[in-house]
Amino acid sequence: MDIKIPNHVAIIMDGNGRWAQERGLSRSDGHLAGVNNLEKLAEYIFDRGVKVLSIFAFSTENFKRSKEEVDFLMKLFIKFFKTKFKNLKKKNIKIVFSKKESGLPEEVEKAIKKMEKETENNTAGIFNICVNYGGHSEIVDVAKKISESVLEGKIKVNEIDEKTIEQNLYQTLPPIDLLIRTSGEYRISNFMLWQLAYAEMYFPKTYFPAFDEKEFDKALEAYSHRDRRFGGIKK
Ligand code: IPE
Ligand code: IPE
Ligand code: MG
Predict the structure, then answer these.
(1) 187 in ligand 2 pocket by Cβ < 6 Å?
(2) Can you name the residues that pair with 52 across neighbouring β-strands?
(3) Chain segment 174-228, per-residue pLDDT in tens
(4) What is the pTM of this model?
(5) Which of 16, 55, 56, 59 to mutate to test the pocket of ligand 2 (most atoms within 8 A of CB)?
(6) Which of 12, 47, 78, 150 has the most CB atoms within 10 Å of its CB?
(7) Among candidates 38, 18, 24, which has minimal Cα distance to 184?
(8) What domains are there in the chain, each with its CATH number?
């Protein structure tokens, strides 16, 4: 069977902590290994012909973790956004962020703005990083933005349709074709609820730091065997 390449892939990068624990390492070591894996994997995914890649880096709920872990992750993001992804930039990939307007440390926000600015005119693909992101919070924010437009007279209530919602999400992206959640958990954990409506789901047991190019190829193979119907009838 021919391998089908999904247009938009999303990854819930889970299992960093358990990967580290199994090796007698700290959770921080697990996050570091996860980030290093992501840099290589993202490049590979675009090389395979995927046009849009969304990743879940930090959820609105992840602030419930210990201060030590949250602080470590924020520092890691700053370093990571500043120094990594040079090759993605060279490959003409645009980097965007899906996030709540506030809540992240100032320095993380600065690194994010810089990265978005540097890549805003790139056209070969889109790398969407979800940080301080929650599917519920995104829908609440959409409701607020549309309500404001109604109050300002920019749109009438009966003109609101699915396109209006899409245009007011944190990023306007094509629908997700393939969702991968690593680590053997079978849940969405508040990730991209609107965009996942008709996504194919793939749940490998592998922890994210070990989810490499070969593992991604297995996901593509599984995706190629799926029969997508979108509510229609099998052909
Ligand atoms: C995913 O790995 C990374 C983040 C949520 C930031 P976890 O840290 O959730 O790893 P496990 O699930 O505890 O193994
Ligand atoms: C989801 O993983 C969030 C990220 C991968 C960033 P979690 O580890 O936070 O999810 P739960 O708590 O197991 O559902
Ligand atoms: Mg987890």
Answers:
(1) yes
(2) 8, 126
(3) 999 999 999 999 999 999 999 999 999 999 999 999 999 999 999 999 999 999 9
(4) 0.97
(5) 59
(6) 12
(7) 18
(8) 8-134+177-223 (3.40.1180.10)
